[in-house]
Amino acid sequence: MTSLKQQKENQPKKKSKILQWCDKIIGIGEGDFRGVTIGQDFDQIKNIEKMELLDEGDDFMTFSCTNDDFELIDISYFGKDRKLNAIKVNVYLNHQQDSELLLNELKSQFSEKFGIPVTEGDGLYWHHDRLHTVSLKNRSHTLDNGLVITIES
Fold it and tell me: What is each CA distance from 32 to 38, 80, 81, 131, 152, in whole angstroms?
């Protein structure tokens, strides 16, 4: 018979809220970001994206999700002729400390995918061969706590 302590040790560890948010933001590992690729057709992106479609126009689509703490992720896909040329992610968190933790985790994952970042002003930038720029900024110095991620061709 196993003790309660042994049962707890054998259970898979629950991911922290920050790691869960990081997974939610990055999505599946294929493509440039969240399984989509710059230049991809908007209809294909709608089939890939798992978040709730919040708004849509000829040159953009915005998807969103929240957690139990009323924190929010908005992902906007921008394009011309319904072909993707930019992605902007706004993450709204309740605490500045969570913003710092998430920024560090995303920095690590982006560096693994895109290489070493350059610090410019208030953000981190990855200049990728095929993509023009990937940026990650902490917006906690403003009214809202959170991050902004931009991917542009």
Answer: 7, 18, 19, 8, 10
